[in-house]
# Entry
Amino acid sequence: MKALMSLGALVGIVGLLLLAGMIFDIIPSNTIRLVEGYMPMQMLFEVGCYVLGFTGLSYMLNAMGMGIPRFWQGIGFWIFFLLYIKYRVYPPIPFSVRAMYGTVGLVAVLMWVSANEEDWKKFKQPILNVLDAQTGFNKVLRYVYLIALPILTWGFSYNVMMPKSEEPIELRTVHPAPPASTKVHGKTYVLQTSLNPYRVNPEGKYDQEYSNSLIVEQGMGRLMKPNANPWDEKAEGYLKYVREGGEIFFQNCHFCHGDNLNGRGLHAFAFNPIPANFTDPGTIAQLQETFIFWRVAKGGMGLPNEGFPWASVMPPWEQHLTVDEMWKVILFEYWHTGYYPRTWD
Amino acid sequence: MQNSGTQKAGLTLSIAFGAALIIAGMEIPAFAQGGIPEGFKKGELAAPPSAEMIEAGKRVYFTKCVWCHGVDGAGDGPGADRLWPRPRNFNQGTFKIRHTASGELPLFDAKKPIRGQNDLFDTVTHGLPGSAMPPWEGILTEEQRLQVLAFVTTQLVKDRSFTDKQSETQTILNMAELKPKPATEESIKRGSELIVEKKCIECHGLEGRGDGNAFNLKDDWGFSIQPANWHKCWNFRGSRQDPYSVVNIFRTFSTGINGTPMPSFADNTTIDERWDIANFVNSLCERDEEGKPLPIDPLTDKPKINFVIPSNMVEGEIPADIENEAWKNAPRRYVAMGGQITHKPRNFVNRIDDIWVRSLYNDKSIAYLLEWDDRTKSVAEGKLPWAPTEVNIDIQEQEPSTGEGGSIAAKQNNYPVYNDAIAIETPVKWKELPAPIKPRYLFGTNEQFPVDIVKWEADGSIRAFKGTGWDKDFEERDNYEEHLKVLKSEWKNGRWYVMIERPLGNKKDQDYDEDTFFEVGQYIPTVFFAWDGHNGDAGRKMAVSAFYYTFMNPPIPQETYIYPVVIAVGVVFLEGWVLTRRANKKKGKTL
# Structure
């Protein structure tokens, strides 16, 4: 038991040192990368490790007679959590989201410290001690609080009331409901039944299983399968069309969606909303191929109102590309990100 | 048979030896003048990468890189013809950002992914800002980045060899032992004198905006190339995602940029002088009001954007002088500009990538001060072949695939010259649209929700239009132009300063169906368009911003001072109540 706990304590200390390094910018927070697509699981795992580490640490400290009171444990863990989401997570998450996580974290900590009557008593004891002010130190502390609290509330409310020019928050629907069908270059495509004509095996038959077996491998780098190079001169069917789609992508789409399809192209910094990140599991991986076809063909202008059509720079690609070219680009996007399009059933 | 084989080998050997001698002979003069330049040390070529690494790198290359750099690494992939700068042609082994002496191959060691000691690895890791090359960190693992470079350096660099100790030398800038000189006023001042003395200003311009000799410079492949704008350090190719770092400037200045007219200054400056120059160049990069570096957005590696443009109130006339206190105190906003790539003709290469905006208002008008860097003042010669209101004009966009000769990079210094121009677009009747709905920002949605466009052109004209759709010709607005004023328009050393004043709008004098009415304390959607005449920009070939907001700061209401005090007093009472309650409880009493 003791050995296990010492190991836990060691993990806790190393973890804290790593976090401290990130806070003071000694270790850049992207040293240990959060992998796009696996981020939530990775974060849960990391926080879990920290919790285990802290348990070990707390046990060891208690054993050495230097235990930390429950009150400070609670506050300490909450502060740790706030620092973790601020400094560990890269790319950084906005304050509003951190505030939400912070509140959830606080509720969790309160639940933990009030799990049983005894713990709860232990937790609130320091607060009551200050209120009662039996010792000199607590008396001083009490007066400091008495004076500081009104001043802080005054400052805070003044700050809130001061007229500010902050950007109004506008919530946009990322994947608005698609129409039943869409008319492109004079032909009507029913979204439920249309198929990508280029998702074919070498015999020229529609074959999603075949194409899915040739997409790039998931995991870091997202590299092509060693025996499935679209640039192979002998590539036929699906892979040949992937290459053609890639050519169109890199002549038209990469300016915004980026060389790695992650929405960080050359012009992306100027636009708001930022271009879609296809490597994110929340975009094309969640959608049917025909949905993408509709979005590509009609662009920002074709969005329903909840999709903020006025702000999008996504071209209605039917102005620039043929139907075949659009299908090929879509084929390429799924190949390059290593995702399967969702099917209707 | 055996004999002829030996002879052949002997011949090859002697040719190789001769070639080595010639190459060595060519390189000798550079060193004979002063041996190793100050701050450099001799280095060794790294060991060649393993065959497995090269093979693994090929897989990375054909997944990620081939699309721009091409099958043979000649910088001619499918994406190349619409890019300026064009993707690197690896074949010649010419690489820009290095720690090695001018003309030498960059540092590359397939086993040493250490920042500052592996130039090609750093380039792949951090990308080349201002070009289409993105940072690959977080996308490719360290190992994958090294693998792809192993492939590129051994298979695609064809004219030179990273492993041939006979033909290649490595003279390395010894950054580890060079400590930056503190950027004191004295050092910066010395730097400002040195850039004149060393003729930096001949290309980079008097204010360092890259406007000297902007269209006569060519790179090794004959493509037009422009000197760096020192005020936009986040676009420095070698900034390594650390734009305000003086070390990177020192490195570029010491080693030069291979393949471009930027020489190495290692032979004719001392280390001390180089730090002075680097400090000065770094000091020019845009900073905030307090002189601190602008916060950089880690996702885009450009300055962080604040979408609200606050407008301060002034009493009386809006001053036309930029140096006036009111303008100096007005907050400055960075407005990012992208190419208009929604409708034909798309602008794949926009030379204007940001505008700095300030605003002031009084009881009748609002004024915008727009400053943007443009290396050339462009005014069209003669009359333009289309009316100012025409939208669908005859400008061709770049074809997707043309080959080098017809590529966008090859056209950069021979476009027909039109007027530089800037426009501010705001929605008409914006209050009738429930927020956040706005008219489409490219020239409005339709007749019902049009936009108000005020456009200034470098020929001195200022016009007001009504826009009702991206492909609908503009409509002139009756006598509105009489109310518009250009308080200032000046092009100086690579920067435009344009100050436009327009009426706030009111129901009495202006047309509610055509003009935007500006109201204090409201968020008025605002879009900026910019045209660079030397880029052949006209009509829809332009740079566009996203939606920003003009916000006219209201005077501070009295409540702001009163309520917080009331709340603070309330808290004091609350404290008293809690303490009394606790004291009573302890005494056994209850309230």
Remarks:
- Chain A has a mean pLDDT of 89.
- Chain A touches chain B through 74 residues (CB under 8 Å).
